[in-house]
Amino acid sequence: MSSRLYRLGRAAFRRRRAVVLVWLLILVTGFALMGALSKGTDDTVRIPGASSQSALDTLDRVFPQVSGASGKIVVVVPDRVSVRSQPVQDAIGEAVDEIDALDQVATVASPFSPLVNGAISADDTAAIITIQFDGQRNTITPATLDAVRQSAADLQSRLGAGAQVDVGGTAFDNVIPTISVVEAIGVVLALIFLTIFLRNVLAAFVPIVMALVGVAVTESLVYAATGFMTIMSTTVLLSVMIGLAVGIDYSLFIISRYRDNLAQRLEPEEAAARSIATAGTAVVFAGVTVIIALVGLFVARIPFLTIMGVASAFGVGTAVCVATTLLPATLGFFGARITPRTRRRRDGSDSFFGHWVRLVTARPLITIVLVVAAVTVLALPARGLRLSLPMESAAKPGSEVRTTYDTISEKFGPGYNGPLIVVVNVLDSTDPVQGMTDLGDDLATIDGVARIAMDTPNEAGTYGIVQVIPTGSPDSAATADLVQALRAQGPAMAEKYDFRDFAVTGITAVAVDVSAKLTRALLPYGVFVVGLSLVLLVMVFGSVAVPIKATVGYLLSILASFGVTTSIFVDGHLAGLLGADFTGSLICFLPIIVMGVLFGLAMDYEVFLVSRTAEEYAHSGDPVQAIHEGFCKAAPVVTTAALIMLSVFAMFIPEGSSGIIKPIATALTVGVFVDAFCVRMTLVPAVLKLLGHRAWSMPERLARVLPHFDVEGAALSRQLSLEGWPADSSEAVAARGMTVRDRDGRALTRPIDLDLYPGQVVVLTGPEGSGKSELLLGLTGRLTGFDGDARVAGYLLPERNAAVRARSVLTSGRGDVIAVLAEGLHRHAVLAAVDDADAVIGANRTAEVKDLIGELAASGTCVLLTGTNPGAVAHVLPGGIAPVAIPMTPPVPARLGAGHHQGTDEPSAPLSTILEEASR
C-alpha cells in the first residue's frame, strides 16, 4: 500500500492544478445535485418488522384519522374560571371548526366530544384539542401549521387576559439539530492547537481547509440523497461532526510528516510523496477502520441507523481521499515555504513527553492498576443506562413544543404526552362498539394505565382502536413496561370479545421497540467491533499481545464514556452545568454510534503511537528503549490530534439539543479524552514495558494466515534506499548478505550473495542444518525473518512476498515435484525451487523431472535445487546445462542483529509441513 500511496502523492504533487480542479468540480457538482434533488431531511422513524410498525401501517390504511402526525392545543384558564363555562366552550368550539376546515387536517377532537375521555383536567382549568393531520410530519406544509397557530392565537384573543393557549405535538416538533456559531469555535480552537504544534500559521490553515472541503462535499451529496431516501436531520449533523474531526486530524498527520521530511532536506515533491506513503498509509488504515465500524451499524437492521452509519462513513472516506490527493496537491503550491525554521530535536528525552513516559513505565503495574481503577469509577454509572427516542420533552425550553409538553404534564399527567394505541381486528365481533368499550375497561385494569382516552371501531367496522394513557412519561421505564404488559395480557382480553390481531402501536410504542432492538444489537455489534480491532491490529503489528491490549483499552474508554454520559443525562449530575434540560434517558442509538466512532479514533491513536514504538524495536531490539523513543516521537502529534478532536466534539455540547446531539457530543468528548490520555498515553506504555519482548511475538500459524500491513512505511523507505540495486535490472534473483534467521534470532544460514539470470540453474549443497531449505523459503517469498537484502523478479523481499509467491513455485523432491514444476512451466514462473532434489528416485520420475527442469531453463525460469548429495542432484539435471554450484555449511551461532527485517517472523517448523501448506 505504501508504494501505491507514494506514487499517488507524487502524481498529485506534480499535477496539482488538475487535482484542485477535479475537487472543485466535485464540489460544484455536489452543490448542483443538492439544489436539484434535495427534499429536506425527515425525522420519521420506521422499524420494519416490528409489531408496532406493522400496526401503524395498518392504521394508515384502515384508520387514517389516527395514523398521521398529531398536534395539540392546550387551553389553560385562570383558577376561578372553568373551561366548561359556556363562553370558553364557545371559543374552543369556534377554534375547532376553523382548524377542521384546513387542508391536511383529518380530524379535530373537541375536549367536549362524547367520544373523547379525559381531555379536561381534574380541576377544570385546562382542556386539550387534539388535531390529527393527513400524513406524517414531513408532508405537512408550513402553511397548514401556521394556520393552526393562527387559530390558536385567535382563541387566545377570544379568551382574553389570564388564559394561556399553547400549540404542540409531533407535527410541531422542532427537535432538529442545527449548526450554530458555537460549533465554529471548535474549528477556531483546532486552528490554535495546529498553530502551536506546527509553529506556522500557513501550515495550520491547511488541515482546516482540507476538512471543510471534505465536509462540504459530503453534506452536499447527503442532502442530494434526500431526494430518493429518508435521511434524518441527526444524520447530517453527525456526519459534519465526525467528518470535521477526522478531516483535520488526518491532514495533520500527513502535513506533520511532510514538514519533518522537509527538515531532513528532502525536495518538496519527494517530501510530499513520502509523507503520503508513510503517514498516509496510517491515515488510510485508520479511515478504513472507522468506515467498517460505521457501516457495521447495519447489524441493528434499522434503516435510519444504517443510513446514519453509511453517511458518516462516506464523510470519513471523503476525508481520507482529500488527505491523500488534495492535500499533496496543495502542498505542491506551498513547496518549501512551510519548512520548519529549525530541525526538530530527535531526542525528546528531556521534553514533557520524555518525563511522562519514564514516569508511567517506572512502575508499570502500579500505573496499570491506577488507570483501570480510575476508569472503573467513571464507568460505574453506566449500569443505569436507559435508552429512548427523543420526544417533545427534548425540545428546547421555551419553545412551543416544550411549553405544551410541560403544560400537559402538569395539568393532566406525563402519560398524556405519549398515548399508546391498541389496534384490534373486529370483523368477527357481533357488537364491535360495545366490545371496544368493554376491551377498554379491561385494559384500564392493567398496572401503569392512567386512563382510557378513546375506544371505538372505525367507520367500516373492520378495526378498532383503544387509546391508552400511561401513568409514566413517554420515555420512562414504566411506559416501556406497560407496552410489554399490554402485549402480554391484551390478546387474552381481546379474545373474550372475538377480537383478533391485537397490537400496540403509536409513537411511544415505536420508540420502545426501537430502543429494545438497539439494546439487543449492542452485543453483536460490540463483538463485531472488538473482533475487527483484534484482526486489524494483529495484521498491523505482527503481534497478539498488542492488539489484545489495544482492544481492552478501547473497551475501557467506551465504558468510561457511557458511565459519564449516563451520570449527566440520566442521573442528572452536572446536567445544569452543561445546559442539559432533558434528563432521564439517552437517545437510543447513542451507544452504537459512539462505539463505532470511538473505535476508529482509538485505533487511529493506537496505530500512530505504537507503530513508532514497533519501528524503534525493529531497529534496536530493546523494548524499553523502543517505548521511550517511539513515545517521544509520536506523542506530540497524537496529543495535538486528540486536542483537536476534543475541541470539535466539545463545541457541539453547549448548543446541541439535549435529546440528541448534546449527549452524543459529550460521550465522544469523554471517550476521546479517556482513550487518548488515559489509555494510549498512559496505559499503553506501561503494558508494553510489562510485556517486554513478548509484546512483539505471534504464533506460527497465525503469522502465515494473516497479511502484514506496513502502516509507517518502513518498507517503502527500504525500497527507496535500494532503488538502484541490483545495477543489472535483468537479474532474476539477487541476494546480498542474505542470512535466514529463526524466530529467536538464531542464524540458520551463512550470509549468501546471489546474482542469477533467467534460465540459470543453481545447486545448493550442504549437510542438514546448513539452512539451504530455509533459504529456498526466503527466496520464494515464504519466509520473513532474514537479514540482508533480496530481490526476485524485481520485487524486494520480504516486503513483496505475496508478489514473489505468485511468480515462483516451491516443492520437495519427496513430494509431487512433477506436478509443481509443470505448474511453474505453465505459469511462466520466474523462479522454480526444488528442495531435497537428490530424493527424486525412480527412472521414470527422474526422467520427467530432468525434462521439466530443461524446459523451465529454456523458457527463462531460474531453477534452484538443494541436496546433501551433489552426485544424486546431478541425476535430475538435463544434459548441456552447467549449474552454478554453491556449497553451504552450518553458520556460527549468532543472535538477532540490528539489520534484521522484522516483519512477522516465521517460527521454526517442519519444512515438509510448510511446503505442504504452500502447495495447497
From TrEMBL:
Q: Per the database record, which ranges form the SSD domain?
A: 209-333
Entry's SUPFAM superfamilies? Multidrug efflux transporter AcrB transmembrane domain, P-loop containing nucleoside triphosphate hydrolases
User: Could you list the residue ranges that cross the membrane?
Assistant: 175-194, 201-225, 231-255, 276-299, 305-335, 356-380, 522-545, 552-570, 582-602, 634-653
**Location of the protein in the cell:** Cell membrane
Which species is this UniProt entry from? Propionibacterium ruminifibrarum
Query: Which UniProt keywords are present, listed alphabetically?
Result: Cell membrane, Membrane, Transmembrane, Transmembrane helix
- Got a GO cellular component term for this one? plasma membrane
Q: Topology in the membrane?
A: Multi-pass membrane protein
Q: Assign the protein's first listed, main location to one coarse class.
A: membrane
Q: Gene3D superfamilies under this entry?
A: Multidrug efflux transporter AcrB transmembrane domain, P-loop containing nucleotide triphosphate hydrolases
Q: What is this protein called?
A: SSD domain-containing protein
- Renumbered to this chain, region (Disordered) spans 893-920
